[in-house]
Amino acid sequence: MEELSGCDATVMISASEIDANLYYATRFAAPDPFIFVQTSAEKIAVMSDLELDRAKSQSSVDTVLSYGAYERMARQKGADAPSLLDVLDLVLQERGARHLLVPGNFGVEYADGLRARGYTLSVKREPFFEARLVKSDAEVEAIAATQRATEEAMGAAVSAIRAARIESDGLLYLDGEQLTAEALKKIMHMKLMEHECVAQHTIVAPGLQGVDPHHHGNGPIRANESIVIDVFPRSERSRYYADMSRTVVKGKASPKLRAMYRAVLSAQERGMELIRDEADGRAIHAEVNGVLEKDGFTTCMLGGRMQGFFHGTGHGVGLDIHEPPRIGKTGGVLRSGYVVTVEPGLYYLDAGAIRIEDLVVVTAAGCRNLTNFPKEISEFEIE
Amino acid sequence: MEELSGCDATVMISASEIDANLYYATRFAAPDPFIFVQTSAEKIAVMSDLELDRAKSQSSVDTVLSYGAYERMARQKGADAPSLLDVLDLVLQERGARHLLVPGNFGVEYADGLRARGYTLSVKREPFFEARLVKSDAEVEAIAATQRATEEAMGAAVSAIRAARIESDGLLYLDGEQLTAEALKKIMHMKLMEHECVAQHTIVAPGLQGVDPHHHGNGPIRANESIVIDVFPRSERSRYYADMSRTVVKGKASPKLRAMYRAVLSAQERGMELIRDEADGRAIHAEVNGVLEKDGFTTCMLGGRMQGFFHGTGHGVGLDIHEPPRIGKTGGVLRSGYVVTVEPGLYYLDAGAIRIEDLVVVTAAGCRNLTNFPKEISEFEIE
User: Fold this and answer.
1) Is ipTM strictly over 0.90?
2) Which H, E and C letters describe chain A, residue by residue?
3) Minimum Cα–Cα distance from B52: chain A residue
4) With contacts defined as CB-CB under 8 Å, which chain B residues touch A194?
5) The organism sits in which domain of life (chains A, B) (predicted)?
6) Contacts of B330 in chain A (CB under 8 A)
7) If you count Cβ atoms within 10 Å of the first and of the last residue's Cβ in chain B, which end, N or C, has fewer?
8) Which CATH number fits domain B9-131: 3.90.1010.10, 2.60.120.260, 3.40.350.10, 3.90.1150.10?
């Protein structure tokens, strides 16, 4: 845990299921908001009576207090219908905490209420817990386990594309049915669910759909076009994410697409060579971009659309899918234990889209790839 | 949309994927935070360049602005490394908005920043959009569609219990394997995923585990014990939740368990009789509790544990799994179009647990049950 920066206590009020900092602090996934207080002496969760037992047995906090008990206390002290602030006030008074450290996303409703009661607040921006960036061995293992499931899902999608037949209409058919982006996503999501992993916003973007890097993709899959597949599930068990992308073509890729693939692969390899403790994310991104430019792939606005390489090289992955650091125009310094994606891409309206993405953990001497899935040029075109 | 209560604009900054109000206002699911501004004239989303196209084609806002373009504008005006507040400031200046309406969960970091720049903030608590409580026909349909998937999942679990054999160790076996709570959850989650629905915190609580209503349940399933099954998935397509619970026994239930089941069923039926436009949630809860008490099932602390009926009768369901209103000790008035659960339960350490939960939509004359799954006493014991 972080130090308190001169404050008496850290306070969070949130649903840990949607607030990774609170989950990190408590290791307890709750769908409804609860109060968390951390002093130098203890970590405290104030739970509704229905969640008390579960919090006591599952969370990593030292003390689980009953919200109902404090509500009754507040009522005895004269509060007619005690509010969450009345309860929090009592807990903080007991601990003698007046100066509070809160995260940037702390709700203004509670911030104003605490200030009106005489508390002072220090607001800390992301990363609220800097330690969250440096993954422990157990965290790296959890992320790698999610990546194993991701690889199985990707493998299932690629197998389906391999098994599909190209018919005379130029479309792919599997077991007599048109093979669609939707069908490929379902194949992946079912495989992920077998491993208790859930992916949202999965991208299967055939042809020019992929030229918008965030287009989720839909409709039939056509032969001889790029198919960008990008999937980033979370394990329901560990709550850690993984992330990977591959691009394939069923049939024959155009010479330009093939050249794009080679360039993206080289750029990705160069990026991974540069990743190590203390490396600068911005410099890595510039170098990755340089590889693509040297191969003749420039980035600019063409026909009102950005084309070339116009997103970051990578981002942190952990309890959130997008965490610090960024490896991009605004990247910072990498440290051993950071888990980051390396995902250059190229996007051209006259050719299609290529993105290749692995997930690596930064080490003192370089990085260790947590991804085990083929990406050689020989894997790009599928017969 | 709601009126602005005398403010110039509503402002939200959040990831709509975890903030149902923002999703409701934009109908756009984004995993990363973005700026939303609503004036009396227009709804505006300020999106990163990567999300621009998707927001334009998918969201319900009138205007999608490029975050990058405003960042460049801020740089021209002298900001060295423009922050999100610099961007928001420009957008608000353009619209002449000074007095802002924000939700209670608006981040204190941005609230303080806006106030420091001379903006005034009116903070509105939940329900931020009162209209969210009243479901349109399309919303009711979406919730009902999720409930259809939920019924299939529940059916799959009950079928597995039915197909299982009781062996001499008193445990259930299916296809030669011990039938566990984990296996039943997986059966349900796979079935839900077929319908693009995802459930978290699914409860399959055998025997005394179920006496803690929030215990998720684990381990082998035993004959002649209550098995509480409570599943509340969200559709990945519509983003609307559903919710249902059933309790079954494989083999023979004890007389007390059977009496508990009958009482809970009567209490639930009584609750549903009372639900209608303008009915008071607190009165309904009291009446439901009264049915249980009349049948001799009292609620009290016994051996350090609450026993009897000690949770609410119901809660709203929509884009969040727990929405206003509550039908419970702190319930409010029901209105036509509210979608609520009706889920009394009984929990005793000397017998086990019973919970029966349906999902209904409030109408002028009563309520319409959105749940179509048997719950008669004849369905309780499974041969």
Assistant:
1) yes
2) CCCCCCCCEEEEEECCCCCHHHHHHHCCCCCCCEEEEECCCCEEEEECCCCHHHHHHHCCCCEEEEHHHHHHHHHHCCCCCCCHHHHHHHHHHHHCCCEEEEECCCEHHHHHHHHHCCCEEEEECCCCCHHHCCCCHHHHHHHHHHHHHHHHHHHHHHHHHHHCEECCCCEEEECCEECEHHHHHHHHHHHHHHCCEECCCCEEEEHHHHHCCCCCCCCECECCCEEEEEECCEECCCCCECCEEEEEEECCCCHHHHHHHHHHHHHHHHHHHHCCCCCEHHHHHHHHHHHHHHCCCCCEEECCEEEECCCCCEEECCCCCCEEEEECCCCCECCCCCEEEECCEEEECCCEEEECEEEEEECCCCEEECCCCCCCHHHCEEC
3) A214
4) 186, 190
5) Bacteria
6) 81
7) C
8) 3.40.350.10
